[in-house]
Amino acid sequence: xxxxxxxxxxxxxxxxxxxxxxxxxxxxxxxxxxxxxxxxxxxxxxxxxxxxxxxxxxxxxxxxxxxxxxxxxxxxxxxxxxxxxxxxxxxxxxxxxxxxxxxxxxxxxxxxxxxxxxxxxxxxxxxxxxxxxxxxxxxxxxxxxxxxxxxxxxxxxxxxxxxxxxxxxxxxxxxxxxxxxxxxxxxxxxxxxxxxxxxxxxxxxxxxxxxxxxxxxxxxxxxxxxxxxxxxxxxxxxxxxxxxxxxxxxxxxxxxxxxxxxxxxxxxxxxxxxxxxxxxxxxxxxxxxxxxxxxxxxxxxxxxxxxxxxxxxxxxxxxxxxxxxxxxxxxxxxxxxxxxxxxxxxxxxxxxxxxxxxxxxxxxxxxxxxxxxxxxxxxxxxxxxxxxxxxxxxxxx
Length: 397
Ligand SMILES: Cc1ncc(COP(=O)(O)O)c(C=O)c1O
Hints:
2 domains, 7-stranded mixed beta sheet, 3-stranded antiparallel beta sheet, 13 helices, 38% helix, globular
């Protein structure tokens, strides 16, 4: 059997001496319900999926139009389909994200129009979005970088004005809030991911949350080949007439069982991420060469990531590595990928952000000792950097 690359193992599982950037949360209490469902004789989409959707809607989204799907990318593609995005339509999106945000736009045969970002939040800039609307625009895609919500009032106002749809890629932001209300309750569509290293995982999984019940009902058909699972059938296996083609995007009862168990813990997980971020915000507020992103008070990040801007990032990365702390830029700017070459645009906000951005560990797994190590390492970097800058500008002193 091929052995897993050691550095990947270290990064993702926390094995080895480094403080990991990500870690899979998997409580042992999962084993009993998982064993039961595996041996139950029913492992497809069934009552566990329905219960998972119900709990997500009631406890987390303040919205019961929830469709559990097999990953966040599927949720995004389903949202684009429901938004009516098709061949040669335009979708305004952000380059500062996981490529999984934008690949589904390509899959629909649509064109991506990049809008710039705010270089101090990494979120899409509503003013640039407004400038880029054309008669061909069908949807706006926004991403809540690291969990920090975008300017949803402004984006929803643009979408309403032009009668187009706003799709939130909320794959970083389970548990974030905007104007006191949970992400998932604001726009036409919000798409979540429960892949391995998110606040909660179903191994792979996702959810599409729709504003309208009609979209949700249509999405329910499309996530399973366009087939109405509840319709009366003449034969056990043969479905009634299929009106529109669909996908195989549904969640199954095994992964939903994992999700139901994870839901018992996720509030504490998010609290821990937020508490760790508060420690960093205070510790780094006066630093000169390492600066936290600039967040407003009317929204709260669930801090899947803690991203900062640093001077001389390569040096910072080397320093953190030496201190045994894993850091990463997490996502590459999407617009430079060959697959998106037809959509190139000037994006000064992305240029500015990408030159300095870095994420440090912030998650539930950090001990008090880890937090002290990280804070000290960052502060030490800043002090050494400031001393160098001073030496360069005042060589004689
Ligand atoms: C911003 C963003 N969008 C979409 C996705 C895709 O989610 P999934 O891996 O569940 O398909 C991810 C995955 O990490 C993501 O970070």
